[in-house]
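Standup notes, structure subgroup. Blocker cleared on the S-adenosyl-L-homocysteine input:
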Amino acid sequence: MSVLLRSGLGPLCAVARAAIPFIWRGKYFSSGNEPAENPVTPMLRHLMYKIKSTGPITVAEYMKEVLTNPAKGYYVYRDMLGEKGDFITSPEISQIFGELLGIWFISEWMATGKSTAFQLVELGPGRGTLVGDILRVFTQLGSVLKNCDISVHLVEVSQKLSEIQALTLTKEKVPLERNAGSPVYMKGVTKSGIPISWYRDLHDVPKGYSFYLAHEFFDVLPVHKFQVSDKLRFVLAPSATPAEAFIQHDETRDHVEVCPDAGVIIEELSQRIALTGGAALVADYGHDGTKTDTFRGFCDHKLHDVLIAPGTADLTADVDFSYLRRMAQGKVASLGPIKQHTFLKNMGIDVRLKVLLDKSNEPSVRQQLLQGYDMLMNPKKMGERFNFFALLPHQRLQGGRYQRNARQSKPFASVVAGFSELAWQ
Ligand code: SAH
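Run returned:
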């Protein structure tokens, strides 16, 4: 048993990434209050008609419309990531991030008996950079995975981003099959020959032994807000609303955000993992049921008032991991949340950085690798703001026998990489 990444990953070289620093969305704690112009965007016009004709809408409905309305939603027709966009994410900062997540999935696959097939399912894949880095690791470790049938499934509502993902992952070498009306709206083959399909909803992804990944996905799902104060920015509902069922009876905070859509997705993931095995890895900024007002907007790498010029800025709220844990309880085991710097350290980021630095003579590439490392790991930057959280079958942590979908039925280790130090079985 060794703790090395170097052997399998040696030939990988540095891949160009965005120049740093840019803003990452986890940076701020409260809604932006800067005075700003409020141009009448098509989305604002749409919301004003809607509110005038059918009455006030909840914050959750506002967030859902602004982000994912099929005609005018912020996510639907633009690439908001990177230098020219509104914010930056870890996979866009450093290739090492995705590589270590690739190792995490392989480590889980090995620890649970090397199934003959698995699906890699990503929720909200952005530009496809993260899954691209993961697939590169799968190719590098081809000798380990050689008898395993892998397929990739992307859950994405954005037309624009799905096109960018297709370009990144397939280079359209094999013409993509497109059918906008079907639940599988696009299909193709990745550069390394793996079948890849696109869906708008997790429910449409085939059930089967899967590894799920959600990076900066849960934070864009619509939240309901509850406030016990007279200093309001939003209008308080005059009486109880059905969403109040989501609040804990012993809740003590005077301002609470709840994301029922996240609960629905976690329940679906938990049922699937309990039924067919696999794991889910959720990485996001968030808290463990302690924070209050985290709803905020980002535009052009700046904090943006959430009510100004809707449709032009990203809207996001911190993920409440205590809620995700409650939704998984009884069906699967959960681990975390643990801080990003601890997770990546356990996954061997230092060894990986050294390999890439040793391989590169180019000062600008070395500087980019070091800056990327600092951005991901520095506790004052993303290191402490971002968390990792995993869902696993109960048997995975009990050290029992794992038989479903597995070629071998030997007992598997109960240590889960990332949440403790990576150790190849
Ligand atoms: N995971 C990527 C992108 C994060 S941005 C990264 O870390 O770089 C959020 C992503 O989720 C975008 O791809 C956006 O289009 C997608 N998205 C937002 N709401 C969604 C929904 N309801 N269903 C599926 N995808 C959604």
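Discussed briefly. The first strand starts at residue 117 and ends at 123.
Next: hand off to the docking folks.
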